[in-house]
Design brief:
The complex is a heterodimer of chains A (200) and B (346). Chain A is an alpha/beta fold. Chain A contains four helices and twelve strands. A five-stranded parallel beta sheet of chain A has the order 3-2-1-4-5. With 346 residues, chain B is an alpha+beta fold. The longest helix of chain B has 18 residues. Classes of the chains: A alpha/beta (200), B alpha+beta (346).
């Protein structure tokens, strides 16, 4: 599981089918399984009011698309990347009415980016369900150049933009949807340790 | 009060300096020979004329140069000044709080004339003479918070209160001890304090939050916080850490008295009347160790505090690399004599 005790990190918990007029799901990778698990306890007709947006990523080819489609949601979309799918979520939220429920499941990076879109749409963060599944790779913002590096698995990690070696801190910004990366060898440039796998 | 405002820099050639008066009124933060976190909050009431506690918002000899340094930072990085849309009213509350208090405390420098919503503000040290309409953003060159912050020493954060929590939803942060407004904006009280070691386990933040949620208008409170900085650099932001972090490797026992500065934050907290937000000024004072040890009690005490500081705290405050040199320097000024209680010089 994820490292515990990070005060600024969201708390993730299993998705629960709530009462609502519309159920918006966004999932990536193994997050599909969280929706399938929820389906085992959802009331009949639940998915007739559900929209599912799914990005297979590393779980492509494991049959999640067809399993989700078999739930017969009112709308089903498979996106090529998280970035490609986010505008769709923004439009869905812009058109949403009272009683809309939001469910996010999968990697922390996807959940964080979807949260940014949802917060911008005026949704109260406490009302959004989030379940982490799959990789613990981190989405990291370089505090120096502000560039985002996706799927960071090492400590330290090289900023994909400015090239500084970053210590990935246990400090998470919901608004940016990323952990903070701070130059690891600023005191003595060139002395950064070799990266080692830290987030599987 | 007659003050000559210093012409000085907080970067490059670092010409910042404290007069003898500024040294004597420096807010030394240690009432005893050891330090640990506590909820060290007290009423922000006036006492000791001439001290930094005399006025609600202290203006000192560094005012004009500090404001000039802030302008440089904001020009380089506009993300140091941010306000989420719902915080505009709190910005006006803050502007009012500062203008009314500054003009009362320092009438020789600041004047505020209010004719209904038409306000006339004069800031003599900065040569500002502006007329604007209160609560109308279009009548100011910046948003209300940034407008008054560009005339103020110290960082200010505006905290919205909702859901039994405080949310850092606006701020102008250019003189910070290594934290990023751009990263932390929108976080709640527990979240933005997340990286602080030890204090969560001590329950410090739960108690402080509970206290602050009940803060009343007209009853501001204050506390001191501290760290150390190489050179009198106000902008020790994480954004620029890759530029200033290298300074730490230059500190030796021989130059520590000149290079190392005790950095003290006088933090106060004020309930605002219209928005019900809290404003959190973080006013930074800097003193070189060689100036500090001219007060014998402070030299002895700082040596003991730093010597016995837990490693986690030293690391969090960024002192790990410089502490040995600082201790070696300060030990010359610690003869083992007893120190008196309290923070003021004997």
């Amino acid at each position: 599981m994820l490292v515990e005790g990070i005060k600024s990190r969201p708390i993730y918990s299993p998705l629960v089918a709530r009462t609502g007029t519309l159920h918006l799901f966004m999932a990536d990778g193994e997050g599909a399984q969280a929706i399938l698990d929820l389906a085992t306890t959802a009331s009949p007709g639940f998915f007739e009011r559900a929209h599912i947006c799914y990005i297979p990523r590393a779980a492509a080819g494991r049959g999640f698309e067809s399993a989700l489609q078999a739930l017969n949601p009112a709308a089903f979309y498979v996106g090529p990347t998280v970035a490609a799918a986010l505008p769709r979520l923004a439009v869905e939220l812009a058109n949403a009415h009272m009683g809309t429920q939001i469910y996010l499941a999968g990697t922390e990076g996807m959940i964080g980016q979807a949260m940014v879109v949802a917060l911008a749409a005026g949704v109260d963060q406490a009302s959004i369900q989030r379940e982490h599944r799959g990789s613990e790779a981190r989405r990291v913002q370089c505090v120096h150049c502000k560039g985002i590096t996706e799927d960071v698995t090492t400590q330290p990690a090289k900023c994909a933009h400015c090239g500084l070696m970053l210590l990935v801190r246990d400090h998470y910004s919901r608004r940016i949807g990323a952990f903070q990366g701070v130059c690891v060898d600023a005191e003595m440039p060139g002395t950064a340790p070799d990266p080692e796998e830290a987030f599987r | 009060m007659t003050i000559e405002f210093n012409t000085e820099t907080f970067r490059g050639d670092f010409t910042y300096h404290n007069s003898a008066e500024a040294i004597a009124r420096f807010p030394f933060p240690f009432p005893e020979d050891k330090y640990m976190y506590s909820v060290n909050i007290e009423p922000h009431v006036s006492f000791r004329p001439g001290s930094v506690y005399e006025h609600p918002f202290d203006v000192d000899e560094h005012y004009v140069s500090e404001v000039a340094d802030r302008a440089l930072v904001l020009n380089e990085d506009p993300l140091r000044s941010q306000s989420l849309p719902h915080m505009n009213l709190a910005g006006w509350d803050l502007l009012e709080l500062l203008m009314t208090n500054l003009s009362e405390s320092y009438p020789q420098w600041f004047e505020l004339h209010q004719d209904g919503d038409r306000w006339h503000w004069i800031n003599r040290p900065l040569g500002i003479d502006d007329t604007f309409t209160f609560l109308d953003n279009t009548t100011l060159p910046y948003g209300p918070m940034e407008y008054i912050m560009r005339q103020t020493q110290g960082d200010y954060a505006l905290l919205d209160q909702r859901d039994d929590n405080l949310w850092m939803d606006a701020g102008v942060i250019t003189t910070q001890a290594d934290w990023s407004l751009d990263f932390d904006i929108g976080m709640n009280f527990m979240e933005w304090h997340g990286p602080v070691p030890l204090a969560h386990e001590l329950g410090v933040f739960e108690r402080a939050l509970k206290f602050l949620l009940n803060l009343r208008q007209g009853q501001p409170v204050r506390r001191l916080n501290w760290t150390m900085t190489v050179h009198p650099r106000l902008d020790t932001s994480p954004e620029n850490y890759a530029k200033w972090g290298v300074d730490r490797a230059t500190v030796t026992p021989e130059n520590a008295g000149e290079y190392m500065y005790l950095r003290v934050e006088l933090q106060s907290l004020w309930r605002l009347p219209r928005s019900n937000a809290i404003v959190f000024p973080i006013r930074c004072y800097l003193i070189s160790l060689q100036d500090l040890v001219t007060i014998p009690k402070w030299g002895r005490r700082l040596h003991r505090v730093l010597r016995d500081l837990p490693d986690e705290l030293a690391d969090y405050k960024g002192l790990t690399m410089t502490r040995p040199s600082v201790l070696q320097y300060l030990s010359q000024f610690d003869d083992g004599a007893q120190t008196s209680a309290g923070t003021f010089p004997d």
